[in-house]
Specification:
The complex is a heterodimer of chains A (about 110) and B (about 110).
Chain A lengths: L4 E3 L2 E4 L5 E6 L6 E8 L3 E9 L2 E5 L6 E5 L5 E5 L8 E8 L8 E2 L3 E5 L1
Parallel strand pairs in A: 2-11
Antiparallel strand pairs in A: 1-3, 3-8, 4-5, 4-9, 5-6, 7-8, 9-10, 9-11
Chain B lengths: L2 E3 L3 E5 L4 E8 L6 E6 L6 E6 L3 E5 L2 E6 L4 E6 L8 E8 L5 E3 L3 E6 L1
Parallel strand pairs in B: 2-11
Antiparallel strand pairs in B: 1-3, 3-8, 4-5, 4-9, 6-7, 7-8, 9-10, 9-11
């Protein structure tokens, strides 16, 4: 069974640009959540999607958005990038909402210059 | 809201028993999870407690006391490959996972 796949793995952007990150969950998993990981803040929850609906949202500005498609694949978008957005963005999938362990992808490492 | 606290760093010798503590405050509780994250890699699931008591899984065990808002992860026979960050995470019912800051464990020969 293939694991969680995130693309791209690495990317460099400049301030003011926008970025879209993609996540394909494990086959059969319907819940996808996104996290931002930085050395100072640890793992911070961004949002969680289940059946194409956002179920929970973390304390991030509106520049951070996401969506989930009917095949459970998910994307997150960050607009008007700031230097502080440089981080590892991790996607995790689970079989269903509100239960179960998380299976993480390798992450997308974003550097904003 | 939810607040989770863990020691920042720990060091132990190969073969030792290591206990990593986690304290939490939460408005709802639907499980406490432990994840291991090696440097540069994704977190991987280690163990899960929803009821009080000890859950054993090979060299790893996890304990939970819901009344005290306390959990620990116990690593027996520490190996060099156990050098990693250990993340405590709490899930509230209908809520997202909240992760602690992580404990960076270094195993010394």
């Amino acid at each position: 069974k293939a694991g969680v796949t995130q693309t791209p793995r690495y990317l460099i952007k400049t301030r003011g640009q926008q970025v879209t990150l993609s996540c394909s969950p494990i086959s059969g998993h319907r819940s996808v959540s996104w996290y931002q990981q930085t050395p100072g803040q640890g793992l911070q929850f961004l949002f969680e999607y289940f059946s194409e609906t956002q179920r929970n949202k973390g304390n991030f500005p509106g520049r951070f958005s996401g969506r989930q498609f009917s095949n459970s694949r998910s994307e997150m978008n960050v607009s008007t990038l700031e230097l502080g957005d440089s981080a590892l963005y991790l996607c995790a999938s689970s079989q269903t909402f509100n239960t179960g362990e998380l299976f993480f992808g390798e992450g997308s490492r974003l550097t904003v210059l | 809201g939810q607040n989770i606290d863990q020691p920042t760093e720990m060091t132990a010798t190969e073969g030792a028993i290591v206990q990593i503590n986690c304290t939490y405050q939460t408005s709802g509780f639907n499980g406490l999870f432990w994840y291991q994250q090696h440097a540069g890699e994704a977190p991987t699931f280690l163990s899960y407690n929803v009821l009080d008591g000890l859950e054993e899984k090979g060299r790893f065990s996890s304990f939970l006391s819901r009344s005290k808002g306390y959990s620990y992860l116990l690593l027996k026979e520490l190996q060099m490959k156990d050098s990693a960050s250990y993340l405590c995470a709490v899930k509230g019912y209908g809520q997202n996972f909240v992760f602690g800051p992580g404990t960076r464990l270094s195993a010394l020969p």
